[in-house]
Design a protein that fits this description.
This protein is mainly alpha-helical. The protein has five helices and four strands; from the N terminus they run E-E-H-H-H-E-H-H-E. Helices cover 59% and strands 6% of the residues. The strands form two sheets. The chain has a two-stranded antiparallel sheet with strand order 1-2. Pfam families: Cob_adeno_trans.
Amino acid sequence: MKIYTRGGDQGKTSVIGGRRFKHDLRIHAYGALDEVNSFIGQARVICERSELDVLKPQLLTIQHELFDCGSDLATVKEDAVLKVQPAMIEQLEAWIDAYTEKSPQLERFILPGGSELAASLHVCRTETRRAERAIVELKQEEPIHEPVLQYVNRLSDYFFAAARFVNHSLNVSDVEYERSAIVFKE
């Protein structure tokens, strides 16, 4: 099998149910998810070097689910079967809640960083937020499968909670933004 098809040589690419220019908002949206997925792959490698194996299977699951999100965003065919389901969002919420419960209470904004793994997860978080903005931009122009946006929104929260859990587990303090007011209240 050849890796190249020459199908994009004129600036278009295939989506499920048609073809679009490569600068199309839909292509930007699922391309941004592909970038997030690559950063997650990097975080998984860093995870293998850390003491926190609990994250590895979660990150792998998320990588598969991001492919599902990308597939749903790449679908313009009206009768297509879509992959992202509410249960996927509920699982993210359960992981977020567990990590939040195991981390110190948060009052102020924190700076991204700490341990190598936490810093990597913060990169995943910010890239996820960027992808979310691309999906919202697409949603303003054409319909999308709504659970994709909900999943991606929750995913950035997952990375934040996981990064804080990692730092706490490795006895690395989060660094509070020094000019932050108290913004998180119970």
